[in-house]
Amino acid sequence: MDADRAFYVGLLGKPSWRELGAYTVYVSRGRPFLLRYMDGAWQKHGVAAVRPYVPHQIASPDKSIAVVLTEPESVDLSLLPCRQEGMRRSNGLPILASRVRTSGTGSSEGASSDELFGPALEEALYGGSLGRKLLDPRIAHIVERIRSQPEARYGAEECAREVNLSFSRFLHLFKSETGTPFRRFQAWKRARGVLPQLVKGGSNLTEVALDAGYPDSTHFSHSIKHIYGLRPSDILSGSRRLELIDH
After folding, report:
1. Nearest-CA neighbor of 81 among 6, 40, 24, 3?
2. Which pLDDT tens digit goes with each residue over 181-215?
3. Are 27 and 47 in contact (CB under 8 A)?
4. CB pairs under 8 A, 24+ apart, for 205-214?
5. Could you tell me which residues come within 8 angstroms of residue 88 by beta carbon, excluding any fewer than 6 positions away?
6. Of 48, 74, 81, 124, whose CB count within 10 A is highest?
7. What pTM was computed for the model?
8. Going edge to edge, which strands form the sheet with 5-11?
């Protein structure tokens, strides 16, 4: 929907373990889905929230799912309903579920994007508007640079020099401010940035990989599967009837 939020309704596929870098809310589109964490048992849910970078696996008998992704550096996660590793229930999540289930593909039929992500929904979900998290200005500068050009290859040493910090201090401050190490943050933003290209199709996977900043197709495939639990070819194949809507 914008740089901080994404909304997906469509096929789930058969994902292996995934590790999304966003605060993730899954909503069933019919029957409950199954969700599990490392060394945990499968549990049934109609709605579930997963914190960023938590490995998990999901399966749905309906073969489809609705997902809302929120970039963690854009909000104060301490105010979100999922406060610990894993999943917690929120009284507001069923409101989101009902709106998502009637939203169709997010087009003119069903709920509009403003109804899905507007202030009223944030109030229902979180008890108020979350607003943007205030990062240290030096880290905010690097975060915005990576967000705006996820395909570029920025080294931590280069970024540290740019904001006048030592290498070790930069890495420590970056993790403290964003909640994740510099390289993992980069990997997520690159994978998130390439997803619309995979959904649109049209290009072969090698071209997509190189345009996205991956050194080769093998590294591209491994990285995408680690994050999304699906190979790039699976995403490309499953997106043939998907409508991509830019907000």
Report:
1. 24
2. 999 999 999 999 888 777 776 568 888 888 888 98
3. yes
4. 205/232, 205/233, 205/236, 208/232, 211/151, 212/150, 212/151, 213/150, 213/151, 213/152, 213/153, 214/190
5. 49, 81, 82
6. 48
7. 0.82
8. 5-11, 64-70, 23-27, 47-50
Cβ–Cβ under 8 Å, residues 247 and 1: yes
Looking at the chain, which runs of residues are DSSP E strands?
5-11, 23-27, 33-37, 43-45, 47-50, 56-59, 64-70
* 94-104: burial string, b at 16+ Cβ within 10 Å, e else: ebbbebbbebe
- What token pair was written down for 137? 């200005």
**Residue 209 corresponds to which tokens in the numbers above?**
């990989």
